[in-house]
Design a protein that fits this description.
By secondary structure, the protein is mostly helical. 65% of the residues lie in helices and 0% in strands.
Length: 374
């Protein structure tokens, strides 16, 4: 029995440490069961509080606390599980009762030292547990600043977009403002900046998945609606406003949809891996034609063959349509044109003038309300 308990305690400690390493240290998007379970469990509580029947302002205030609260809760869970594992080890080596073993484990883990131990085995356990306790604290100290540095870099780009694309951001408004200010001469630099943005969020939002749910300082701004705006702006530009290909815009488009897809891969969100250019998208042809007319009215030179332009735009949009909408759904993004103002295919739909809500006619697997995790 003691051997079984000892091995079980070792397994619990090892699993907890691996979760901490994968979440904090490992520089790649490797999911941790414990981290994912913690985020899913706390999300269920926040989904109840931020019910779709409430106003978006209320839900935004509630969901702004979701990621920070979970990030504080996660290290506490790591410490508790390591303490529980060492309590099993102390009991297995004959320290005393379960209660006494728990006390000495807590004393060692938190380096309080109010319980003394005897023998080399108990001393070895006490020293190793104290080392792990300090290590977990050090991980937390280094983890949060690194993550918030990535958050600050992301939000700088989101805030800058507010100047060029309005609030909420619009791809049409972005192109119109650029045309009025610079006549599209500065667009290549914008495409390069946003190509870098997508490369950064691909790395940071899979290494630190809590970043996906950290909301912008202003409720009407959000990283996923900013990403959708720039992808749509580039797709409209290369399909409708250009007579010749624009390699830099096309490179940014590819960087964008690959980034969103890889974030979806990390969270287990399904999307068409190899969509055909003719596959349906969430944008209608009438919406595209209205956008083209708005661009023409603003003085932008628009393609004379709008049928071909629509096919070209749809051929680009299909690559990021589902990942964009589903990420907007799980992050409960504020309303923005052509992204969070509509739900993704096979996700519960509500009023398109509000965030998507639950539909009682949906199959049971869909009845989770707007923003539920997959």
């Amino acid at each position: 029995m003691q051997i079984v308990v000892f091995l079980a305690g070792l397994a619990l400690i090892a699993a907890t440490l691996m979760s901490a390493v994968r979440t904090v240290i490992l520089p790649r998007g490797v999911p941790s069961f414990l981290t994912r379970y913690t985020f899913r469990s706390t999300r269920r509580v926040f989904d109840v509080i931020a019910h779709p029947s409430r106003s978006f302002e209320w839900r935004d205030r509630v969901m702004a606390m979701y990621s920070p609260v979970t990030l504080i809760l996660l290290p506490a869970i790591w410490v508790f599980l390591v303490g529980a594992g060492y309590a099993a080890l102390f009991w297995a080596v004959g320290f005393g009762t379960v209660e006494q073993s728990s006390f000495v484990s807590g004393s060692s883990l938190l380096t309080l030292g109010f319980v003394s131990v005897e023998g080399w085995a108990q001393h070895a356990l006490a020293f190793s547990e104290a080392t792990l306790g300090l290590g977990l604290v050090a991980l937390l100290i280094t983890f949060l600043p690194a993550m918030y540095s990535s958050f600050a870099d992301r939000e700088t780009m989101v805030a800058l977009l507010d100047v060029r694309a309005g609030t909420p951001p619009s791809a049409v408004e972005f192109l119109l403002r650029y045309h009025r200010i610079d006549g599209f001469e500065e667009l290549p630099d914008a495409w390069k900046d946003w190509e870098r943005f997508f490369a950064q969020i691909q790395e940071s939002h899979t290494s630190y998945p809590a970043l996906v749910f950290l909301r912008s300082p202003l409720p009407e701004m959000h990283w996923i609606t900013a990403a959708g705006t720039m992808l749509d702006a580039a797709a409209l530009y290369v399909s409708t406003c250009r007579s010749e290909p624009d390699p830099q815009a096309q490179v940014m488009l590819r960087a964008g949809f690959l980034s969103l897809r890889r974030i979806c891969d990390f969270f287990g969100i399904e999307y068409p891996a190899d969509p055909a250019p003719t596959d349906p998208i969430a944008i209608t042809k009438d919406e595209f034609l209205t956008a083209s007319e708005q661009l023409r009215s603003g003085g932008v030179s628009v393609s004379g063959d709008l049928e071909q332009a629509w096919r070209d735009y749809a051929g680009w949009r299909v690559n990021y349509d589902t990942p964009l909408l589903r990420l907007a759904n799980i992050t409960m993004a504020p309303i923005a044109p052509w992204s969070s103002d509509r739900s993704a295919p096979n996700i519960c739909r509500g009023d398109r003038n509000t965030n998507p809500g639950p539909d009682s006619r949906c199959p049971r697997r869909c009845r989770r309300g707007a923003g539920s995790l997959p």
